[in-house]
């Protein structure tokens, strides 16, 4: 589209439509029609980088996805659906794709996944580490012990801890800033807070997690461009599982000492 470089919504819309599977011409045609409301192939071509003869191919692609309606006039006119309906169509389509993907992957997994993992596994990236933490919490049957800095305790993590508590899992959390602790007590009334024996601000530590005494994760905040440690963007974690896993043994001993220290 011949948009001004400052017209960020046009660029974002085209980029995201291509990301969800539309061809470049189809994405540009859709955005052009969204701008026009409705129009002919020539109208679309006039405000986009799509040749008029290729607009028809793009419209066919959009029509197949249920994104455009065609008025059989001379010349043909095209009408684009609303942004809300567009979002709903893509959500349904990708929800189905994800369901099919999960089903296919489940069929590829070993018949019996071993709970005992040799050595430790590495996870890189704050979002990926957060996902692993939530996965581990969701797998808990008896107990979750978790220590972290406040900025890493996201709403999704709190939701997973609350869900675990509601199904009877014991939740033990290291103390954090007072305002965060108040939020936690409100969200997870049954959670037990324990005093940390370390000053986290003096270390690059990110998270320490133990689930059911047999699955553990520890992370550190990596170097970044922030002015202070909590502004660092990167995070790296290692995790292990199984009663004889070396990381599990070390963190189990550490948490036992930590919790006992709070009870004396």
UniProtKB/TrEMBL annotation:
Pfam families: Regulator_TrmB, TrmB
Transcription regulator TrmB C-terminal domain span: 120-220
Record domain Transcription regulator TrmB N-terminal: where: 17-82
UniProt cross-references to InterPro entries, sorted A to Z: TrmB-like, Tscrpt_reg_TrmB_C, Tscrpt_reg_TrmB_N, WH-like_DNA-bd_sf, WH_DNA-bd_sf
Protein family: Belongs to the transcriptional regulator TrmB family.
Record PANTHER family: HTH-TYPE TRANSCRIPTIONAL REGULATOR TRMBL2
Annotated protein name in UniProt: TrmB family transcriptional regulator
Organism: Natrarchaeobius halalkaliphilus
């Amino acid at each position: 589209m011949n948009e001004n470089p400052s017209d960020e919504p046009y660029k974002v819309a085209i980029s995201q439509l291509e990301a969800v599977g539309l061809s470049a011409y189809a994405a540009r045609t859709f955005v052009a029609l969204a701008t026009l409301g409705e129009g002919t192939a020539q109208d679309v071509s006039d405000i986009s980088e799509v040749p008029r003869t290729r607009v028809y191919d793009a419209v066919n692609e959009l029509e197949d996805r249920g994104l455009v309606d065609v008025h059989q006039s001379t010349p043909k006119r095209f009408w684009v659906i609303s942004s809300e309906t567009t979002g709903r169509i893509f959500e349904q389509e990708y929800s189905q794709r994800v369901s099919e993907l999960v089903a296919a992957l489940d069929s590829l997994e070993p018949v019996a996944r071993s709970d005992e993992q040799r050595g430790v596994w590495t996870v890189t990236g704050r979002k990926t580490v957060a996902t692993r933490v939530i996965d581990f919490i969701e797998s808990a049957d008896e107990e979750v012990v978790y220590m972290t800095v406040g900025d890493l305790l996201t709403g999704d993590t709190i939701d997973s801890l609350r869900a675990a508590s509601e199904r009877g899992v014991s939740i033990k959390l290291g103390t954090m800033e007072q305002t965060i602790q108040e939020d936690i007590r409100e969200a997870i009334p049954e959670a037990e807070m324990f005093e940390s024996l370390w000053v986290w601000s003096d270390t690059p530590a990110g998270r320490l997690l133990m689930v059911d005494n047999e699955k553990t994760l520890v992370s550190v905040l990596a170097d970044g461009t922030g002015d202070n440690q909590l502004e660092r963007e990167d995070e790296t974690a290692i995790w292990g599982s199984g009663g004889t896993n070396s990381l599990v043994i070390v963190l189990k001993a550490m948490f036992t000492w930590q919790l006992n220290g709070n009870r004396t």
